[in-house]
From TrEMBL:
Keyword field: Chemotaxis, Hydrolase, Methyltransferase, S-adenosyl-L-methionine, Transferase
Domain CheR-type methyltransferase positions: 200-449
Biological processes, Gene Ontology terms: chemotaxis; methylation
Species for this entry: Paracoccus hibiscisoli
UniProt-listed SMART domains: MeTrc
GO cellular component, one term: cytoplasm
Keyword field contains Translocase: no
PROSITE patterns found in the cross-reference section: CHEB, CHER
Protein's recorded name: protein-glutamate O-methyltransferase
EC number: 2.1.1.80
Length: 497
């Protein structure tokens, strides 16, 4: 969707995505009794339904609000001040300016329709509002993290106020919740956030640039990290989100709040970091890595084994995904060799989650049952990574921009991080990767990352030696990800050739 570049906010109808499960009907009725009918939001309600029974949720909600209520059986145009309700035996996704119903893509027992919809909102509409109400299970706990990364503000019903508290508890445990309160207070906060978004949209480019410079300078002084080489829209998106959370009326007020509240610098710093990921993100790319890329690493491995670096590892899912693939390949070949994965990030909270290796049961949507059985242990409503996987991953705080790279690496995974950087910083980071990779090492980028050319890598690198030529060639091979291929799978094939 088109975006106001200097504001980092998408154009179009803002979406309020609402997830609920058991006990959710009463919570939804209370929510729509309190919410005004003129906030300009499109409300999309995802609730767990029996696939075999008709649903009357549309009629129930229509009785407590003056907004039009539509059950989405096929496709509906998103319109302000309208409510859209999921239909039985369907999942909803956003495509452009429409909300679409489609058959479930996952088998029964592994479905997470709230996560699915929230992720689609994050991918297509950027920032918005996410609301988790009463429910059983952990559906939504992963999706709200994606929405938060995209700039959304996350609201969770107070578990003490919910008829069923497991879903709110899981959302809170994810670390993505911005406001936790009973429903009447949540609605008050939603109104404030909507007004704050309107204030951001009304800013001129000159005013936004002035205050962003002040904020970035202040953030560098407080945290030691410089975001001046990150794309302005990325920084503005994080600042706008913190404006809404801190209930600041404008950029000037937020700059003053940042100056007066030392702890806010760390909150903003955390929002600007990319701490959202999932297991086997872009599954097709992982499939090709497993089928065509890892074999090369094992064929070339010496007594030192295989060394890999996952840069920007966030909460650890992608590092563990890579570890699982390497262990599977070692078992397939019936070989034993050292495997070491360095997984790094700047977000200490995300690293703590990664080290704990405990994830909500909704990861069932991303991890197939065979891998869940082999590499995870069920702990109530969560899964924990088994020790054999944890033992080969070392998590550490590290800046890919400021700190030296790890060396003698067979593989670097840096997925969907470069996209947030300005072009010159992208070149510098790629040059560091070239320096750290062995000849013929692999660079695994994300489908959203920009193409990286060989000349760009060469011109940016003043330290790369002749032994890094093959690594630079790997950087060049990523170019087709955006320019000549249309899918992560095809892009990954170009990487490992």
């Amino acid at each position: 969707m088109a975006e106001d570049e200097h504001l980092g906010m998408p154009r179009g109808v803002p979406i309020c995505a609402i997830g609920a499960s058991a006990g959710g009907v009463k919570a939804l009725q209370e929510f729509f009794r309190h919410v005004a009918d003129d906030l300009g939001l499109a409300y999309v309600v995802i609730i767990h339904l029996s696939p075999d029974q008709p649903s009357s949720h549309g009629e129930i909600l229509a009785s407590v609000t003056r907004m039009a209520v539509h059950q989405v059986a096929d496709s509906s145009e998103l319109t302000p001040d309208c409510v859209y309700v999921i239909a039985p035996d369907r999942e909803l996704v956003v495509q452009g300016s429409r909300v679409m119903a489609r058959p479930f893509t996952d088998p029964r027992g592994q479905r997470a329709p709230i996560d699915m919809f929230f992720r689609s909102v994050a991918a297509v509409h950027g920032n918005g509002l996410a609301v988790i109400l009463s429910g059983a299970g952990s559906d939504g706990a992963l999706g709200i993290r994606d929405m938060k990364e995209a700039g959304a503000v996350v609201f969770v019903q107070d578990p003490a106020d919910a008829e069923f508290s497991m879903m709110p508890h899981s959302a809170i445990a994810s670390g993505a919740a911005d406001f936790v309160a009973p429903i009447p207070r949540l609605v008050e906060r939603i109104v404030e956030v909507v007004h704050s978004k309107d204030a951001v949209r009304s800013l001129s480019q000159e005013v936004a640039h002035h205050y962003l410079q002040r904020i970035v300078t202040f953030l560098r002084a407080r945290t030691g990290h410089d975001f001046s080489s990150y794309k302005r829209a990325t920084v503005m998106r994080g600042v706008a989100r913190r404006m809404q959370v801190t209930r600041s009326a404008g950029l000037q007020e937020y700059a003053a709040y940042l100056s007066d509240n030392p702890e806010e610098a760390q909150e903003l710093f955390g929002d600007l970091l990319i701490s959202v990921t999932s297991f086997f993100r872009d599954p097709g790319a992982y499939d090709v890595l497993a089928q065509e890329g890892l074999g090369r690493l094992f064929d070339q491995a010496d007594e030192g084994g295989i060394r890999a670096w996952v840069a920007g590892c966030a909460t650890g899912e992608e590092a563990y995904s890579l570890a699982i693939l390497l262990l599977e390949e070692a078992q397939r070949r019936q070989v034993t060799l050292p495997i070491q994965i360095f997984a790094t990030d700047l977000d200490e909270g995300a690293l703590a989650t990664a080290r704990d290796a405990r994830y909500p049961s909704s990861i069932e949507a991303d991890v197939d049952p065979e891998r869940l059985t082999r590499f995870f242990v069920r702990e109530g409503a969560h899964y924990r990574i088994r020790k054999e996987v944890r033992d080969i991953v070392l998590f550490a705080s590290h800046s890919v921009v400021k700190d030296p790279p790890f060396l003698r690496l067979d593989l670097i995974s840096c997925r969907n991080l470069l996209i947030y950087m300005e072009r010159q910083l992208q070149r510098e980071v790629c040059a560091l990767f070239a320096h750290g990779l062995k000849p013929d090492g692999l660079l695994f980028l994300g489908s959203a990352d920009p193409p990286v050319s060989r000349p760009a890598a060469r011109s940016a690198s003043t330290r790369a030696t002749a032994s890094a030529v093959s690594a630079r060639r790997t950087c060049r091979s990523v170019t087709p990800w955006r320019s000549r291929t249309s899918s992560p799978t095809e892009a990954m094939k170009s990487l490992v050739r």
